[in-house]
Write a structure and sequence with these properties.
Blueprint lengths: L6 H14 L5 H13 L3 H6 L7 H15 L4 H5 L1 E4 L2 E4 L12 H6 L8 E5 L5 H9 L4 E6 L2 H14 L4 E4 L10 E4 L12 H6 L13 H9 L5 E5 L5 H10 L4 E6 L5 E7 L1
Parallel strand pairs: 3-4, 3-6, 4-5, 6-7
Antiparallel strand pairs: 1-2, 7-9, 8-9
Helix pairs in contact: 1-2, 1-4, 2-4
Length: 270
């Protein structure tokens, strides 16, 4: 009878393969994937490295590891991603929510009760749903030009029980707003990206013209009459976007850095 793999052996084998594929965090990714297969948490793996895997568990983990070797994002493999205390279902129809985007949500937390907020390019619904979870008194909507992405957002809203309206359309899609939030496309066409993004994430949610500011320019103009604008931007873009915001009438402009110190969110207030 063939001996079964242990947790330690399965992880060690996957780590070697992920390292060879150039994955930045091979041990972490292997542990997350195995924990997902086992329906456990990473602490349980560390506490019980000699646990033997059932043959089906081994196969599922090997399949997941092979997908990660192809640089498919972990969130697409597990089908979910945590974001500001909520768990979102994600797949290649939408961007994987990232920690730096949480700063966009934070910018809106001080809005007055009843304020109308539109999350432009909502994707999985991350910004809109996280804000509604923390500020249920706000009137929150999300828009997206991609109908497939909106299917993901609506499914997340239904599963989480959050009352957010999702509308198919360009930018504000005709909605009235007191505040506009966005993680828009901001990568310049042709810019080299990590394989996880270049191969797997939706190009329409990533690229935005020769300088990456094509969508942001239109968005700032569309939001010229709102009280609050919070937009995630790419590295090195904050100064240019801040100038656009000031030209649109936002006298108070703040540049919010991410954990790496990169000016990541431009917040305009009036």
């Amino acid at each position: 009878m063939r001996r079964r793999n242990t947790v330690r052996e399965a992880l060690d084998s996957a780590v070697i393969a992920l390292q060879a594929a150039g994955v930045d965090t091979p041990r972490l990714d292997a542990e997350v994937l195995l924990a997902d297969v086992l329906g456990a948490d990473r602490a349980a793996l560390i506490a019980h490295p000699a646990r033997e895997l059932e043959p089906g568990e081994t196969r599922r983990f090997q399949d997941a590891a092979r997908r990660r070797v192809q640089r498919e994002p972990v969130a697409y493999i597990t089908g979910r991603r945590g974001f500001r205390g909520i768990e979102l279902t994600v797949d290649p129809r939408v961007l994987v929510p990232r920690p730096e985007t949480e700063h966009v949500v934070e910018a809106a937390l001080t809005l007055p009760a009843g304020a109308r907020v539109v999350d432009v390019g909502t994707g999985s619904g991350a910004i809109a749903l996280a804000l509604k979870a923390e500020r249920p008194d706000l009137e929150v909507a999300g828009t997206d030009a991609d109908a497939a992405a909106l299917d993901v957002a609506r499914a997340n809203a239904g599963r989480l029980g959050l009352d957010v309206t999702f509308v198919h359309g360009d930018l504000l899609a005709g909605l009235a707003a007191d505040a506009v939030l966005a993680n828009p496309p901001y990568v310049a066409d042709g810019e080299r990206l990590m394989p996880e993004v270049a191969r797997w994430e939706p190009a329409g949610a990533v690229f935005a013209g020769a300088d990456g500011l094509g969508v942001i320019r239109r968005l700032v103009s569309a939001a010229a009459g709102v009280r609050l604008l919070a937009v995630e931007v790419g590295a090195g873009q904050a100064t240019a976007v801040a100038a656009l915001a000031r030209a649109a009438g936002f006298a108070d402009v703040e540049l919010v850095p991410d954990l790496a110190g990169i000016e990541r969110v431009v917040v305009g207030r009036r």
